[in-house]
Amino acid sequence: MRRLIFGLACSGLLAAALWLVACSSDEQVLAPAALARAVLGGTDAAPASVGGPLAGAAARAPLAGLPSVDDEPAPANPLESSVARAWQLARRGRGTEADALLEAVLGQAPQYRPALTLSGLLHAEWSQPVADAEDERPPARQLQPPAVLSDESSVRLAAWQHQALHRRLLPGNLLQLGRQVDTVLAADLAESRLYVLRRDGHGLSLRADYYLSTGTRGSFKQIPGDQRTPIGVYSLLSRLPASQLPPLAGHGAWPLSFPNRWDQWQGHLGSGIWLHGSPPGQYDGLPHSTNGCLALSNDDLDQLSPLLAGAGTVLLVADHLDWITPAALAQRRSSAIQRLLAHGGHARKPAEADSLYAYPGDPSLLLVRRAEGAVGARDEFWPSGAMEPLAALHGGGGGHRGSAP
Amino acid sequence: MRLATLLRGFALSSCAAVLVLGAVQPSFADDLQDINKLVSSGQTAPALEKINSYLGSHPKDAQVRFLKGIVLTEQGKQVEAIQIFSALTEEFPELPEPYNNLAVIYASQGQYEKARNALELAIHTHPSYGTAHENLGDVYAKLASRSYDKALQLDKNNTTAQAKLSLIRTLFDKSGGAARAPAGKADAGATHAEAAAAEPARAVAKDKEGARPGAADKDAGKDGNVGSDGVADTVRAWAAAWSAKNPDNYLAFYAGDFKTPNGEARKEWERQRRERLTKPGPISVQLSDVMVKVSDKDAAQVSFRQKYSSSNLKSVNLKTLLLHRSGDKWLIVEERVRG
Question: CB–CB of B315 and A132 under 8 A?
């Protein structure tokens, strides 16, 4: 049996409208495949080997026995990587295979939204009246997915595309990491993605990345109840005891150290910003659906949880992560140190054990986290032009408004 | 969205079916005609009575069992209807109609996966079965919107109507018979399904002829066709001129006041059609299931399934042509593609 309309063409991955073009001739069926190659071409350059999984991730292989595609993206979550593959298959006109793959995914996770959305798109495509001669296409059924679903697919597709590119790069905020830092969780809110970087013998490298839901009203939290996710550098406090865990947090919750000293200086208020799982009855959330928390699927949270409570774990939350090569990062680091020393007075060059961050959301703001020093006074925030670090401006007390939610 | 067409006829798609037909006795035709009349006039109880009495003496008769399935479906006895159509798919796996009708029932129950499987089997047996294609499109549309609802955790199952697909009403294709049956009588608006079904053997013979793209009728358009019988011949000749890539002959089938599909100027439309018809590579246009309706002596409507194939496109489509009589010819005034 020949289905007449197989191909799905993405009108441009970053385009808000992720609409799919019906393909009715063989030539047209080839076009989306070519497009897919063009759009996803970057992934050829970056072998998947760097994605050395976290502990246990290797055992969670993608669904077995299903077709694989070269240069496929491979997110750490096996359901997600299967849907990523299904997208590629669909774009290449291999809709039947994509459909089978999605069926298997939905067999495991019937509520997995990305699979439901793509399945809907495929079936909507197949529901179209069969094309007549070239110039006589019958009217199409209107079966576009609701905007939130299109938006989510766009976000995920964009992230899958970027993921492979990121593998040899590092977030430009991480100018210098002291030895005590062994794990960086870097959240890119525009991509709805949490990247996991770990230190190994060769320095820091990207190990995994996960889909992430964040604040309904966006980022840059300033006041309580604004449903925004804070931007900044945080640590994760102790896991909430099960007795304090609301159902919406799913398998667990780790409060962020929001508001930190910089937030306090800026007058950012609020509390109870957590990294948590997903409530029963849903696999994960829409990209912008929390009250400001960072939410993962429970599967992903379980996989990450051994890292979360570690003293060496830093959480970086940015609107957009800026991925650059280690060489470019080294350059950026030296110019940042020059900038820091230009402040004069109290500015000291970070020691090897100290960390230096270009602060998310404000490239001119430097955060120096000293390895040594009084508790509460180890963080120095250097806004541009300041003659003294923020700790000194504040009298060095620190934490006077309390940093725990 | 139009969702319903219960397939009314079994397309004759295999030798097995020919053998079934070959065994038909004259009395069978009478009984079948009676049953058909009762079924099509909605008298399901007497129809069922007659069917059961007939099946008492001919328990294996596929066509009457098929009709029983339809009557039971219409009476809402889905479990029994499913049994009958399932048995027919097992005994005659090469026939698309029982699969189609099974799908109709499954879809009415909201079991779209099962409906989809059945329709894919129907299409597998008969790749150009228009009704099954349409039904499958409807099932996919339902599957798509159900996926979106699930993704948004909306449970619309209780508030949205289930898909209503098209049941096929009779077991045997009537394309040839319908196309050639005398039209313009009192029941001019009706299709000729009943008449054709009553003469299945004849329908078979015509179907074979009708399956060819009107080779024998090549010059029919030029010769002129007086009378409504000529309408179907005109349409076949139109398809033949298209297949022959002869733009002059092809365009001669269109009336001066032909409604161009996108409202473009006639000249522009003619230019496009000439371009299409004369591009490299063979074109084949085959018609089947040709149904003629003559609404008055000078206006006719012809519906058919059009199988188009060129070097870069293959499609199957349901098309309706509206024709007006002009002197001794029928000319196309409008061309519609059904979605």
Answer: yes
